[in-house]
Amino acid sequence: MKKINIVVIGAGLYVCGKDTPGYGTILPAIFESKRYNENIGAIHCISTSISSSQKFLDKAEQLKKKTGVDIEVNAYPKIDSVKNFSYKDVLKDISKPACAIVSVPDHLHHQVTKDCLESGLHSLVVKPLTPTYKEGEDLVKIAKINNLYGAVEFHKRWDKSNLLLKDKFQSGVLGEPINCWVEYSQRKSIPTSSFKDWASKTSILQYLGIHYIDIMRFITQAIPKRVMAIGQKSEIVKYNIDTYDSIQCIIEWEMANGTNFTQTLLTSWIDPETSTSVSDQKIKFIGTKGRYEADQKERGIRLNTNEDGVEHINPDFCMSYGIENNDINWRGYGIDSIVTFLNDVIHLENKVKTLEDLEGKRPSFQESLISTAVIEQAHKSLAKNSAWEKMSPDLQKNSK
After folding, report:
1. Which of 91-105, 123-137, 180-194 is least confident?
2. Mean pLDDT along residues 292-321
3. Backbone angles phi, psi at 38, to 5 degrees
4. Which residue, among 159, 149, 172, has the nearest Cα to 139 in the 3D structure?
5. What's the CA gap between 43 and 373, in Å, rounded?
6. Which of 114, 155, 174, 216 is the most exposed place for a label (fewest CB within 10 A)?
7. What's the CA gap between 40 and 68, in Å, rounded?
8. What average pLDDT does range 303-316 have in this prediction?
9. How many CA atoms lie within 13 A of 195 on its CB side?
10. Which has the closest alpha carbon to 60: 94, 99, 29, 103?
């Protein structure tokens, strides 16, 4: 089987833990994939500055020592004097990459992913697919024309807490869905520090809440009918960032048998920095025969130290295990999501699987149009004083 070279576009927090003591999720996931799969080739990371390139290379070198995994790593731009640097130029120069992982600000997803697809690369995009349905539909068409695999990195589909809910629902023990309640929030430093340059171009619902819009589709296979959202702005605007502190969104879904249920999402990113975890996440699912509740922040582990105080540890997302050099490995649903994509690309490139084999089993571009459409309608609702917004008939037709 032939090796695949991987392009990573972006070198920020999620890619490699830029400007933090950590290593992000994407880079550790590639290292873990390489550990067990000799068909993983080189990494080519494209960012916007020599500073970001160097920080990415530094993180990769540290991971090589910690994991004992040897992998070729390249970063661009290579020199600081480059003017009008373009990732598109690098895509032309890299020797036959097979796939791209796109981790850039939300509003750049469409253009960057489009360029990757038109360069012949299977593409994985961090959520959301795109801010608008029209942009997402365009990517679906381009991927289909070029016979390429496109997926969204909806890692919550690999969270065993959500997989258990899916099994319980599909087994019938919960009965017909009545309503679902989700609370999902993060620390205020996310919009005011980590993403301050582009937080005004997204929303907390689009950046975070979209995970559980996708999860509802994943669990029930229902189709959204209409959406309503209410938002508040008072805190983050003090930092000269025009974005909502919190958004509450209600979605009415329709099952294949015609029954309806509602999902309520309470999202915010103004939690105190003293919060015991970066993310606070809870879900309740009520059916006609039972209910499922999961506190996905409180997973049974607390750590209390002089240096950091009390922390709730999530061992299931992206966690390193082992403290010796050459002995550290990463595990979790964040890792599994990316490793699955890379394995799929290897199978596609080596004719072991076809695109048809993956249909209905992955968060494909086509499947992700649903969550994108909901977000777009929610934003319209916010702009219209929280009016209900109906979903397009085309979405319902194309999602069945």
Report:
1. 91-105
2. 93
3. -70, -5
4. 149
5. 33
6. 114
7. 15
8. 93
9. 24
10. 29
Short-list 27, 29, 10, 31, CA closest to 76: 10
Angle 63-102-338 (CA atoms, 0-180°, nearest 5)?
55
pLDDT in tens, 336-389: 999 999 999 999 999 999 999 999 999 999 999 999 999 999 999 999 999 999
Residue 267, pLDDT > 70, answer yes
Distance CA 46, CA 37 (A): 23
Q: What is the pTM of this model?
A: 0.95
Q: At 27, list the tokens.
A: 């880079």
Could you tell me if 217 and 367 are in contact, meaning their C-beta atoms sit under 8 angstroms apart?
yes
Per-residue HEC secondary structure of the chain comes to CCCEEEEEECCCHHHHCCCCCCCCCHHHHHHHHHHHCCCEEEEEEECCCHHHHHHHHHHHHHHHHHHCCCCCEEEECCCCCCCCCCHHHHHHHCCCCCEEEECCCHHHHHHHHHHHHHCCCEEEEECCCCCCHHHHHHHHHHHHHCCCCEEEECHHHHCHHHHHHHHHHHHCCCCCEEEEEEEEEEECHHHHHHCCCCHHHCCHHHHHHHHHHHHHHHHHCCEEEEEEEEEECCCHHHHCCCCCCEEEEEEEEECCCCCEEEEEEEEEEEECCCCCCCEEEEEEEEECCCEEEEECCCCCCEEEECCCEEEECCCCCCEEECCCCCCCEEECHHHHHHHHHHHHHHHHHCCCCCHHHHCCCCCEHHHHHHHHHHHHHHHHHHHCCCCCEECCHHHHHHCC
For residue 73, the cross-strand partners are 43
Chain position carrying tokens 């390429």:
148
| CA-derived radius of gyration, the chain | 21
How many residues appear in the chain? 400
